[in-house]
Write a structure and sequence with these properties.
CATH topology: Glutaredoxin
Structural class: alpha+beta
Number of helices: 10
Distance between the termini: 15 Å
Radius of gyration: 16 Å
Helix content: 55-70%
Largest sheet: 4 strands, mixed
CATH architecture: 3-Layer(aba) Sandwich
CATH class: Alpha Beta
Shape: globular
Strand content: 5-15%
Number of strands: 4
Amino acid sequence: MAQPVLDFWFDFASTYSYPSAMRIRPLAEAAGVDIRFRPFLLGPIFKAQGWETSPFNLYPAKGRHMWRDLERLCTDLSLPFVRPDPFPQNSLLAARVALAVPETKREDICRAIFRVQFAEGRRIDQPDTMGTILTGLDIDPAALLAAARSDAIKDSLRAATTEAQRLGIFGAPTFITAGSELFWGNDRLERALAWAQCGV
């Protein structure tokens, strides 16, 4: 019987996607669930709702709570945390890079991108940052960055974002089972894995 699958949809600028990305693999392995990392862009989805920036910026009280909550969460998980500046960061380049790498390296590069942004406070919209990450994964940065700028990768990212909208995704992280059950938020990861185990 095929291993159950859970799609992990995220935007690299998403704060709560950081802890999800860093903890999802061991939890999934324990549950016997395969994880597919699915980067997309939240910007077009927010714009469709009339938002020009993150709701955490639009609603200051919500934003203040989120930052403190994320600090507590990262402390609980022993994850280093640095508040990104600016927030949200432009995640276009990072998403294209993640889609351009070989499938076998995708999880590694996704976690590395989250790490440099939320643990080291670096800008993920900078080619130099991406180059450093790629070099650390033994990937030729010049060739990969060129691939990330190709029409094929641009189209792949547009298609991923369109698919996220079709699925009803409105925020990140979002987890979707093979049976199209949607779970939103880092705190729903375990529940999503339990549903995925059942094949629904």
